[in-house]
What we know:
This protein has helices spanning 2-14, 18-38, 43-77, 81-101, 106-124. With 125 residues, the chain is mainly α. It has one domain (2-124). The protein is elongated. The relative contact order is 0.12.
Amino acid sequence: MLEIFADSYKIALSSKNPETARDRFALAVEAYHQFISMESAGEVRARLQQAMEELAEMFPTQVLANEALGLWEKARKLKTPRKQLELLRRAHEIVNRGLAEHPSSSVLRESVTQLQMEIAGFEDS
């Protein structure tokens, strides 16, 4: 159960595919609840509870940042500037939407700044 939680935690916070990230987040939550219902007390339970709290706090912004990063990486592999710019703008929209919901997110603020610079480089060309 702990291994399922740990793997799901890692994938939920690193996957660039938002559907995969959401599925793994749900699996981590399920594994957490199953473990908590079986384990009465102890250090492992406390660490697991802390990890679950961290996951719940980080996931909403990290999933958006990862999705934008995936689009950004895909844009870098494309040959045509028009398609690259299209993907960069989509990534920028995702990050902006996230900032509207989570204005204090440093991860999203950093991403939006980097994307704006990248987009400006294309528009200046």
